[in-house]
Write a structure and sequence with these properties.
binds flavin-adenine dinucleotide; 309 residues; Uridine Diphospho-n-acetylenolpyruvylglucosamine Reductase, domain 1; Uridine Diphospho-n-acetylenolpyruvylglucosamine Reductase, domain 3; 25% strand; 5-stranded antiparallel sheet; alpha+beta; Uridine Diphospho-n-acetylenolpyruvylglucosamine Reductase, domain 2; 4-stranded mixed sheet
Length: 309
């Protein structure tokens, strides 16, 4: 096991200048929050992702895959081990309406390129800033649609080092969840390498209009300050933002973090917010909504890194 501050030996030799040490995660997360990752590197393709994960496993170094870090809150103490940013961006189309993508590709790029070609099924995803891998993990969705609804298969690197193909049914999609969600925390992360999506022919003009409408709706309802999107899942009865607002917490600040006055299910970084500020607002919202309405708010984002030390 590696001691903090000790040279990461084999992995540094293998990656040379591509390996960053003590890299502030605040430079990479959409929240602009997060302490240092011991080690940080970027995989330029799905193949490189396999190689980096295999190397980390051989060296017994804990690893975490991130896409665009738009759905995580990284602890102020940072992340021990190796963070691998998934940069494989390739996308291609086959058989008219089948889209293939490396898991590091941006969901928004998939949506725009599909719409341009007159292929519907992803137009709701134009404004979601994450990667395909992160979207599959959290079954990202908007406007009544979600990624599990168009995903056919994914190629996955299993913890034993084999690459297997999983069907949509095997991926266990549910509301903002899948079989992959929470694995980062358990240290046995299956790695999504690429995915296949079944789209449908639809007039490009209609798709462009729908996408423009969704963009307008986002602009009027969502804050522009750094955030990680919706903090909590919708509850069975009500949207989480409605409950937080009814609890009187809209606009509440702790340190540099604020429950957005524009949308109460967003916590925003007003500048210099710490992860503990955001966590304190999360705890406050959960406590107040439970006390006032007897409803439990469940996190949609994931807390990663050293929260206990
Ligand atoms: C302004 C804003 C608006 C948003 N709007 C929406 C919305 O409308 N709907 C919605 O669903 N979400 C929304 N989000 C949240 C987020 O963008 C999506 O959930 C997105 O799909 C996450 O992708 P990511 O690449 O950023 O994942 P990350 O945050 O990088 O990772 C999320 C989790 O997935 C894991 N992971 C990432 N890639 C892989 C991989 N290849 N293999 C295995 N595990 C992996 C990570 O380890 C982590 O546990 C929004 C976020 C922001 C900031």
């Amino acid at each position: 096991m590696r001691v903090k501050g000790e040279a990461p030996g084999e992995i540094a030799r293998a990656l040379g200048g591509k390996l960053l040490q003590n890299e502030p995660m605040s430079l990479h997360t959409s929240f602009r929050i997060g302490g240092p990752a011991d080690l940080y590197t970027v995989a330029a393709s799905a193949q490189e992702l396999v190689e980096l994960v295999s190397l980390a496993r051989e060296q017994d170094i804990p690893y975490l895959i991130i896409g665009r870090a738009t759905n995580i809150l990284v602890a102020d103490e940072g992340i021990r081990g190796l963070v691998i940013e998934n940069g494989g961006q390739e996308i291609w189309f086959e058989d008219d309406a089948v889209l293939y993508a490396e898991s590091g590709a941006l969901l928004g790029d998939l949506a725009r390129e599909s719409a341009r070609r007159g292929l519907g099924g992803l137009e709701w995803a134009g404004g979601i800033p994450g990667s395909v891998g992160g979207a599959i993990v959290g079954n990202a969705g908007a406007y009544g649609c979600y990624i599990g609804g168009v995903t056919r298969k994914a190629a996955v690197l299993a913890p034993d080092g084999t690459v297997c193909e999983l069907s949509a049914a095997e991926m266990g999609f549910g509301y903002r969840t899948s079989r992959f969600k929470g694995q980062a925390d358990e240290g046995q992360q299956e790695v999504i390498l690429s995915a296949e999506f079944a789209l449908r022919p639809e007039p490009a003009q209609e798709l462009a209009e729908k996408m423009a409408d969704y963009t307008r709706r986002r602009e009027t309802s969502q804050p522009t300050e750094p955030s990680a999107g919706s903090i909590f899942k919708r509850t069975r009865q009500y949207p989480a933002g409605f409950l937080i607002e009814q609890a009187g917490l809209k606009g509440m600040h702790i340190g540099g973090a604020q429950i957005s006055p524009k949308h109460a299910n967003f916590i925003v970084n007003l500048g210099g917010a710490r992860a503990t500020d955001v966590k304190a607002l999360i705890d406050l919202a959960q406590e107040q909504v439970w006390e006032q309405f007897g409803i439990e708010l469940e996190l949609e984002i994931e807390l990663v890194g050293e929260w206990n030390g």
